[in-house]
Amino acid sequence: MNSSLPARCLLAALLALGPQLARAAAPEISGASGAAARHWTADNGNGTYSNPLFYEEFEDPDVIRVGEDYYLAGTTMHMNPAVQLMHSRDLVNWELAGYCTNRLDLGPAFRLEGGNIYGRGIWAPCLRYHDGVFYLFSNVNGAGLLVFRSRSISGPWEMNQLPGRHDLSVLFDDDGKVYVISGGGSPYPIDELAPDLRSFIPGARHQLVGRMGEGHHLYKVKGKYVDVSAIPGGTVDQMVATADSIDGPWTVERMVQGESLGVTTVTPQRAQPGDRGLTLHQGGIVDTPAGDWWSIIMSDHGSAGRMVALVPVTWSEGFPLIGLSGNPRKAPNTWVKPNTGHSQAPQPAFIHDDNFDGPRLNPLWQWNHAPDDAKWSLSEKPGVLRLHSLPATNFYSARNSLCQRPPGPESIMTVELDTTGLLPGDTAGLALLSSPYAWIGVVKTDGETTLQMLESPGGGGGRRGAPAPPAPTPTVGATNPPAHLWLRVACDFDTDQAVFSWSADGRQFTALGKPFPMTFQLRTFQGVRPALFNFNTTGQTGGYADFDNYTVVEPRARGLERSIPVGQTIRLTSGADGTVLAGDAGTMALINLPAEASAANPSTRFRVVDLGLGRVAFQAATGAFVSVAEDGVRIKDLAGQKPTAAESFQWINLLRGDATFLSLQNHRYLATQPNTPGRVTATATSPRPARKGGECFTWKAVD
To answer: Rg of the Cα trace of the chain?
Structure first.
């Protein structure tokens, strides 16, 4: 069988299908609930996990351990509720614990009144626990540093404000002092907070001198001070500094170096062999009760936004380095789950659907700014979300737009809309909030209603605070469409394109407008956000729109991307040049042959032997095994003995059908030399983002 199916085929095939059909087709996995088979789940069900932890945006992660529980905080920018908090017992399976505040309202712009805070708001949180209290420190543009505190991660949270500090981190030291490091350039100030955290201590300032970055994470580990920070950018690295005293001297090391986990800087179809990838570059570290260390760290993922990965940490000469022994500053995309003392079946962190039947919204919803709570309701007409329109010139300036993050690598969002309550000037529908933005919806005028799809021009260079772009021209569809209809947007984050469509019966969907090119930009500083909206362009309040049965289908949440063909005989083809792996009977070496020379060659067949934990051995037709040695990769007769670390490989499925094989002997990858058939090595440090470096393979089962 073929090990992959192009994303474009799935998107086209599923465009016209109802959500129930796509869900029925989702395969199950070992130990997984039905939900884990339908929604992105990092846990593979075999004792391993695969990144990203969440295949959707989760920016600026900060992670802590409290006893046997782990907590994670992430940036929410202008969205409400603000500052997302997660809980886990195993660092792999997470659940939403809540938010620090339901309403981030520090002035008119926070309510989209006379301005906006798109791309600003609250960001780069620092989560800490001290003397029985959770603390969350986070900066807000123009408002300063907010300090939240609660005895429970689920709140309620008390808040006070302090003067602003950029990308800060807080350390409660053993002697009772509270340090705050911040800034984006050396020397980095280290201030002291008063014990009650309501003021800075005048004159109490230290500093870190050295080439670090921003997005600080400050710790004290076994008596040493450790600061982790990221060089600003997308294709950058993370640094770490250590010192015996808060006053230094600080010694700086590179903590991550060029590790992209196979994520390209452009859409995969356009990636060139030299693509450096979007690298891991901002995140915190945490230990387990067993004494192991891990990092939850961020990287950019195109228009879907920034996502987080869980990667092992190895201490070397006093520095915590991302990666495994023998391959420092790199990280496997799939690895064995952390030993936290807790075993858990796979479960998705996020299920986005909402039928609006309950008294509360699905907690994954966020408003685009602080909402007007008098203008939306779940009780006015039980069973639907009713949005009353407020005056706005366009969707970008419309209040009470209800948003979610779209899961990848593909997602199909569908919602039912009843437009009976619209008044002239109202526009209601389903959008992708970004810059540029796009929407499909119903426009009500004095004489008629029309179905329209609109894509805004980018305008303003996509920068934060940029002026609004010029008015766009919509694509006009049906005139006087049914008052009850279905709207859909299908997002493919491998191509960064979205298709809007509509239906009169919820089964057959018709595309409207051109595919929308999605982008990540700095004007909102987020990935695209599906949004339900209703606004009025007459300058007055208007009518209402009723939304029902919001569903999110994830066509590639699982399935072939997690397949390991254990027990099967396969042929492995290099993604770099199409050559095929083979065992050389003369030299007993593993080599790669031109495809035309290998079609009927039995030496190109390898049986995949299951070693557990997603690890395999490759057995040649002769019965010998692929084995890693100092002088290269051999075909070795084990004389009836079981495979050792030299014959063991972590099977790592990258998205889009590619696989890499990490040797447990040296924690490096099998690789060919592109366009040069010959001996295969196990010296590659990480997969190249474009999959053209010789470390990525496709597989095909053979008889």
So the answer is: 26
Read off the DSSP letter of residue 42. S
Cα separation, 582 vs 598, whole angstroms: 8
What are the pLDDT digits (tens) for 612-638? 999 999 999 999 999 999 878 999 999
Tell whether 351 is covered by a domain: no
Are the CB atoms for 178 and 201 separated by under 8 Å? no
Q: Contact at 8 Å (CB) between 464 and 77?
A: no
Q: β-strands 697-701, 681-684: how paired?
A: unpaired
Q: Does residue 542 lie in a domain region?
A: yes
The pLDDT tens digits for 530-558 are 999 999 999 999 999 999 999 999 999 97
Answer whether residue 361 is part of any domain. Answer: no
Q: Which residue has the tokens 């770099």?
A: 576
Give the range of the structural domain holding residue 284, as residue numbers without chain letter. Answer: 42-336
pLDDT (tens digit per residue) in 307-366: 999 999 999 999 999 999 999 999 999 999 999 999 999 999 999 999 999 999 999 999
- DSSP-assigned letter for residue 560: G
Do 324 and 441 have their domain in common?
no
Whether residues 634 and 525 share a domain: the answer is no
Q: Give the pLDDT score at 630.
A: 86
Residue reference for tokens 């391993």: 48
Residues 287 and 414 in one domain: no
61 contacts 73 by C-beta, under 8 angstroms: yes
Last residue of a domain, one of 282, 316, 336: 336
Question: Last residue of some domain: 553, 582, 615?
Answer: 553
Looking up residue 585, the CATH number of its domain turns out to be 2.80.10.50
Q: Check pLDDT > 50 for residue 6.
A: no
The DSSP element (H or E) to which 9 belongs, if any, is: helix 7-15
Is residue 418 located within the same domain as residue 506? yes
Residue with tokens 């007007």: 372
Exposed, middle or buried by CB within 10 Å (0-12, 13-18, 19+), for 232? middle
- 221, 273: one domain: yes
For the chain, how many structural domains are there in total? Answer: 3
Q: Return d(Cα 415, Cα 399) in angstroms, integer.
A: 19
Same domain, 151 and 206: yes
d(CA 330, CA 322): 6
Query: What distance in Å separates the CA atoms of residue 532 and residue 389, rounded to the nearest whole number?
Result: 12
What was the pLDDT predicted at 32? 52
Tell me the three state secondary structure of residue 35.
helix
Please give the Cα distance from 456 to 243 (Å, whole number): 51
pTM above 0.90, yes or no: yes
H or E element, residue 22: helix 19-24
**Same structural domain for residues 80 and 166?**
yes
Say how far apart CA 489 and CA 692 lie, in whole Å: 32
pLDDT at 290 over 70: yes
| pLDDT tens-place string over residues 432-468 | 999 999 999 999 999 899 999 999 986 444 566 666 5
Q: What are phi and psi of 221, to 5 degrees?
A: -125, 115
Tokens of 467: 């002026």
What tens digit of pLDDT does each residue of 46-88 get? 999 999 999 999 999 999 999 999 999 999 999 999 999 999 9
